[in-house]
Amino acid sequence: MSFSFCVSCRFPFAQSRTPNPQTTFRSHRDVKVRSNTNHRLLERDVLWSGGGSGAIKAIDESIMLRFQSDWSATDASSAVSFLSNRWRVALEIFRYERARVGLDEDRWFLGWHEKKSYVGKTYLNEEDEMGPARGEIYVSKYALLDDDFSTFIGVLRHELAHAMCGPLEDHGWKWQKACKAIECDEEWVCEANRKFYVRPKTSLMWTKRDGQLFLEGGKDAMFRALPRGCWERTIYDSESNRTVYENADGLKIDPFALKETYEIL
Ligand SMILES: [Zn+2]
């Protein structure tokens, strides 16, 4: 497995037919956000129709410390239970952060993928006959396996900023403004955080945990740890066409039936 090339974020414009507008890539370093100690209000022109209220709460450090403790305390005796626990904590963090940055709980979904070639990916869906503007954020299984808590927080906030800015923005000034407003670590305020891939000890740890997973449950062991309904491949085919999950009984489940989707194992 090579780590010499990497992309930390892929940013497909699902169901958006708008061409990529170069004009939004202009630099805007003097970022200002109206704020007080407890919350900030991001200007509406930064947000798209699915980007929430713009009302952003300050990070509650005591809550983050609890998340970090839960992240670090997961039992490593079983690789399946270890990854399953990491997903449980990740979902709690996602729900907390989604609310904190003003995104609608019915419109924003967390899933996972099994790739090393990118860490996070956000799909953005314009309003259509299926519903209002909404989206999905997928985080790599390898970010979940990472013992560095800041990796998951960094990639999550990077993708949440995409969720707030929408399909007409890539990594331009609006996105940077959203990153600053939600307190995304500077290391992740970039198109690709290459540091993610150049940590030999972490790479060895990934290999070790992949091996443990295989020994415990074969090639499908990850589905014993992570909900199949939230697997990116289940929802999008190789050409990024949206599909609908179908369980063993042939029952079709829309991924935005979040409760059911999170429970599909
Ligand atoms: Zn990105």
Model description:
- It comes from Bathycoccus prasinos.
- This is SprT-like domain-containing protein.
- This protein is α/β, with parallel strands linked by helices.
- The chain has one domain (9-16, 39-222).
- 36% of the residues lie in helices and 12% in strands.
- It has nine helices and nine strands.
- It has helices spanning 61-72, 79-100, 141-144, 149-165, 173-181, 200-217, 222-225, 232-235, 258-263, and strands at residues 9-10, 34-35, 39-41, 55-57, 108-113, 120-125, 134-140, 245-246, 252-253.
- It has a four-stranded mixed β-sheet with strand order 1-6-7-5.
- Strand 6 (120-125) and strand 7 (134-140) form a beta hairpin.
- The protein is globular, with a radius of gyration of 18 Å.
- The chain starts with 8 loop residues before the first strand and ends with a helix.
- The relative contact order is 0.18.
- Mean pLDDT is 80; it is low at 1-8 and 10-33.
- It binds zinc ion.
- Zinc ion is lined by residues 9, 11, 158, 162, 171, 191.
Summarize, please.
The chain is an alpha/beta fold. It has helices spanning 61-72, 79-100, 141-144, 149-165, 173-181, 200-217, 222-225, 232-235, 258-263, and strands at 9-10, 34-35, 39-41, 55-57, 108-113, 120-125, 134-140, 245-246, 252-253. It has one domain (9-16, 39-222).
Which helices and strands appear, and what pairs or packs with what?
Elements: E1 9-10, E2 34-35, E3 39-41, E4 55-57, H1 61-72, H2 79-100, E5 108-113, E6 120-125, E7 134-140, H3 141-144, H4 149-165, H5 173-181, H6 200-217, H7 222-225, H8 232-235, E8 245-246, E9 252-253, H9 258-263
Helix pairs in contact: 1-2, 2-4, 4-5
This protein binds zinc ion (ZN).
